[in-house]
Amino acid sequence: MEDVMVKGERRPITTIVFVFAMQKEAQPLINRLLLVKEVNSPFPKEVTWVLFNGKYKDLNINIVCPGKDSTLGVESVGTVPASLVTFASILALQPDLIISAGTAGGFKAKGASIGDVYIVSTVAFHDRRIPVPVLDLYGVGMRNAFPTPNLIKELNLKVGRLSTGDSMDMSPHDKESIIANDATVKDMEGAAVAYVADIFKVPTILLKGVTDIVDGNRPTSEEFLENLAAVTAKLDESVTKVIDFISGKCLSDL
Q1: CA gap 38, 31 in Å, rounded
Q2: Under a CB-based contact definition with an 8 Å cutoff, are residues 207 and 246 in contact?
């Protein structure tokens, strides 16, 4: 998305939309910024999506989560809910910037450790295998995140590639694709958010905190649940520093 140098590039960023898969990932930031749940939601009444908003410094901050599945009551993770909330949020809130934030698995072979927070350089899918010329590239759907060299340098952030799929585990097919994507971290939403944002040419940053080591010796789900609270707190610290850096700046300053 590095070609997204919109007309408002020299205008200070005023509205940010954060897309989180799970409210528990977003809750520390909601608490820190004193955001409140929007009672007059701009979203259709049928959906379970939740919107928290408020003012922080000179920024209008919005946090959107897909909410709980209406049938099973679990968090609506994955690419489909992420795509839908991103689409609706862009239309309803007209953000200058989208930030896809949340937890991810990391690969120790690429230098990732539990608690690391990465800013993403490129994002792609690893479970959309379409072995037909050109459709294969569409399936991978690789996109660049909005370039933020000054932000990375100032906050000394780790940078890595992200690979997205709708399963928490990693099949041999997925592993092959993730290696091809040269990914340091993997999640279940990032590429979907980037896909929708790219349609509307909304600059997008992705920040991912590592809860589990995918190529380690422990079950991913076990490690994820064990580390979720601590890593979410670390993610909150990093995201807050990012917001502080963005405040008062234009897209081209990032």
Answers
A1: 15
A2: no
Which entry of 25, 75, 189, 236 is annotated as an active-site residue? 25
For residue 92, CA distances in Å to 35, 85, 88, 201, 211 come to 18, 10, 6, 15, 32
Supply the DSSP symbol for 3: T
Q: Residue 3's pLDDT is what?
A: 47
Q: What are phi and psi of 117, to 5 degrees?
A: -115, 125
d(CA 135, CA 121): 23
Q: How far is Cα 190 from Cα 200, in angstroms, rounded to an integer?
A: 16
Nearest C-alpha neighbor of 185 from the set 252, 242, 248, 103:
103
Render pLDDT for 48-65 as a digit per residue (tens, 0 to 9).
999 999 999 999 999 999
Say if residues 147 and 137 touch (Cβ distance below 8 Å).
no
Q: Where are the strands (E) in 107-222, listed by range?
A: 117-125, 143-144, 158-164, 185-187, 204-213
Mean pLDDT of the chain: 94
Helix pair 190-200, 79-93: axis angle to 10 deg: 30
185 has which bridge partners? 106, 162
Active-site choice (127, 174, 212, 223): 212
- End-to-end CA separation in angstroms for the chain: 14
State yes or no: is 212 an active-site residue.
yes
* Residue 211: CB atoms within 10 Å: 26
φ/ψ (deg, to 5) at 44: -55, 145
What number is the average pLDDT over the span 61-70?
96
Active site residue 189: no
